[in-house]
Amino acid sequence: MAFETQPKQGFEPGTLVQDGVHLKKGANREEQKRLSEEQRVALEEERIYRKGVASIKDLIAPAAMKVEPSFVRLGDVFCRTLFVVTYPRYVTVGWASPIINLSAQLDIAMFFYPIKADVVLKQLKKKVGIVEAQISADAEAGKARDPISETALRDIEQLRDDLTQGIEHFFQFAFYCTFYSTDKDELERVTANVEGTFAAMLIYTRRAF
Question: Of 2, 12, 99, 193, which residue is least crowded by CB atoms under 10 Å?
Answer without folding.
Answer: 2
